[in-house]
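re: ur question from yesterday

yeah so i grabbed the chain u mentioned. its 337 aa long if i counted rite. heres the sequnce exactly as i have it in my notes:
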Amino acid sequence: MTVNDRYIPSDDRYSHMRYNRCGNSGVVLPALSLGLWHNFGSVDDFGVATDMIKYAFDHGVTHFDLANNYGPEPGSAETNFGKILRDNFSGHRDEMFISSKAGHDMWAGPYGGNSSRKNLMASIDQSLKRTGLEYFDIFYSHRYDGVTPVEETMQALIDIVRQGKALYVGISKYPADKAVIAYRILADAGVPCLLSQYRYNMFERQPEAESIPLAAANGSGFIAFSPLAQGLLTDKYLHGIPSDSRAARQTGFLKTDQVTDAKVDAARRLGEIASKRGQSLAQMALAWTMRDTRVTSVIIGASRVSQLAANLEALNNVDFTPDELHAIDLILASLQM
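ran it thru and got these structure tokens back, copy pasting raw so excuse formatting
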């Protein structure tokens, strides 16, 4: 790879993006971040993955979200991301905010998939090796496993920061009662929780009750994943399940039985509101997730550059009228009946 082959980002890339302060910290994150949960693994097109990361960075997306088990195969998203960085972004590391996580099943045996100190310490070393990075900007406990004491997991995160392997730490998907303990332990150690990551979208509003206000009360930023409900909040499933969709893929997280008639009908009605706003359903769903000022960033995924570009256009219209929000609430409330 010669210098002339390296990616040269545009000078005005930051003008495309809105940045939000992360909790009580000095860090800002882009309103939309790029997640590598899907479409960046060993089963995916490496060229397309490279083009998406280039496009994202060129349009102000400075935050890239990984986990040790992202693929498939597990670990391959980190490996591919590391290669993309080496081949295209040398000299730009300090312009990026890169995360990874550990806690879900990653390797065989009793130590490969929980929230123990043993797992987290081994995981971050493996993740750093796969990506070729010297440190992560933030490293998360990917879940509360129901067994490991929160004190043990948090002490591992504290030590990871003190060892220089991550600048910040966060929690993902923690129940509220465990999150309270985590926030306290981290704050007392002088390593406050920078980010709290939860699934949040129009169809999954549970974080509004506890997780979002709890994060804000503890000075933690809130970052939402799955804002499009794995594609249910797009026009993809309005006329059945396409053969190339996530629901149709054996390696996908979304299952066909989750594409219910009620959600498809709600998506169709929401799409009518989006159309009046001059947006696609996906763009409106992203804007809706960003409407709360306590939401620091929303993690988007994409399978191609055109899809990524369309999602980033959600930033062109993020405001809602009271009437629009009321109409949306009525549609979403019908799902609970």
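noticed a couple things. The CA atoms of residues 93 and 230 lie 29 Å apart. also The radius of gyration is 19 Å.
anyway ttyl
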